Amino acid sequence: MPIISLNKKRDKVLNDFAREYRERTLSYLRNTFSLSREDCEDVFQDASIILYHAAVDGKLDNLSSSLYTYFIGICNNKAHEQLRKNDKMQLSSIDAFSSEDGEERYNIILNKADKILNMIESNEKADAERNSIVQELVKSLPSPCNELLWSFFRDVLSMKAIAQMFGYASDSVAKVTKHRCQEKFRKSYENILAKM
Predict the structure, then answer these.
(1) What does CATH list as the number for 141-196?
(2) Rounded CA gap, 59 and 65, in Å?
(3) Which fold has domain 1-92?
(4) How far apart are the C-alpha atoms of 85 and 186, rounded to whole Å?
(5) pLDDT by 10s per residue, the chain, length 196
(6) 109, 70 in Cβ contact below 8 A?
(7) Are 44 and 22 in contact (CB under 8 A)?
């Protein structure tokens, strides 16, 4: 097949993919990272460009996950970059003030910045601890619960994809199984919290 036809087919596949998953991805980014719509669209655009270059470079030829899972991984990295950029922009506005603007005002702003940084640091520690507990709990769940919960929450696979992956008769069977697994997880998590 001529190279031009291959390029057109690749471009069509990627354009169709972007159209099909755009709103789902934007919703995921908003809910997961609490980004503005504009930031979510920037992340989606940047991730789409990276996906395109990966396709051109042949990195998608032997993909071990679904294209959407691969794309969400790119989006997660870009969203973290966006969050760091947003934090830097908020904190850099402090630099615009100098002691000439009023030493009291300057000190108030620096104190607020310190509080924000301390909150971020303590939240990151708490998040890391909670994530560690969640990972250990999910790993300790019996099969298929551990794999199913990872597929749904971490890999953001649809119920249809999970049903196919695990050989369930329908999406409904996969949903019922996921619900039971979530209940097992919830009970284990509550037991751990009660012991803390």
Answers:
(1) 1.10.10
(2) 12
(3) Rna Polymerase Sigma Factor; Chain: A (1.10.1740)
(4) 35
(5) 333 345 788 888 888 999 999 999 999 898 888 888 999 999 999 999 999 888 888 888 887 778 888 898 899 999 988 888 877 555 444 445 444 555 665 556 666 666 666 666 666 666 677 777 778 888 888 888 888 888 887 778 888 888 888 898 998 998 999 889 888 888 888 887 777 6
(6) no
(7) yes
